[in-house]
User: Fold Amidinotransferase from Bailinhaonella thermotolerans.
Amino acid sequence: MCRPEFFAVEYAINPWMDPSAGADRDRAIAQWEALRQAYLDLGHTVDLIDPIEGLPDMVFAANGALVVDGRVYGAKFANAERAAEGPAYADWFRKAGFAEVIDPQHTNEGEGDFLTLDDFILAGTGFRTDIAAHKEAQEALGRPVITLQLVDPRFYHLDTALFPLDGHNVCYYPGAFSEGSRRVLESLFPDAVIAGHADAEVLGLNAVGDGRNVVINAEATALIEELGRRGYQVVPVDLSELRKAGGGPKCCTLEIRR
Ligand code: ARG
Assistant:
């Protein structure tokens, strides 16, 4: 995770961002601290990367890389405003002792558009990550990559529309996907939890599941109820200040799979 010490909404690279509306950095930091504490309370380890001045979106660590079986596939951002984050995250992994850090040729925003399941990786395209990066990630990581087409600019990253519940099942908002990709999801995940528009609109799909617990935006009330019915332990968090940049709990979290 990356503490939002330099967080701001200074430019608009997705429809959630309105630089004229402003964002309260202290509030963002307090909300982020609560998210970090929630992970610690669940027994997870949280490593931190130093925030860099001038990179207001660096708090969204999910975009920094994709780590599978200890191999790190680096990010190459679509927008110039965030370009410097790619090498910064790759450096962190090199310094942390990861032997295989792969510099990407193709544009991709890490776990924003790549979500890892036990047998394959789901990959979004349409707004940020280039479809060529899907092939590159598959070659780099040796796990099959399945392409999904995103069609709604408010759900510009795959992780704004879908999250893994465990290694085999997912929760998603069908409205974010093309018709063909919806059919792919229906056939891969007959038992998926399907979210409605209201929960998607509060970035309720930008959640983190570990098989048992789901850390999720508190405003996603219908989805929270459904997850509870399905037997998940739900941990609601308030990241409303970070949502002004188009991010939620998952965006703030890069999962390190060793
Ligand atoms: N403002 C950031 C951007 O548009 C938000 C990134 C959110 N991250 C994510 N994993 N969806 O790039």
Summary: Residues 19-245 form a domain with the L-arginine/glycine Amidinotransferase; Chain A fold (CATH 3.75.10.10). Residues 13-14, 17, 57, 60, 62-63, 82, 112, 157, 159-160, 245-247, 251 surround arginine (CB under 6 Å). The first strand starts at residue 65 and ends at 68. The chain has one domain: 19-245.
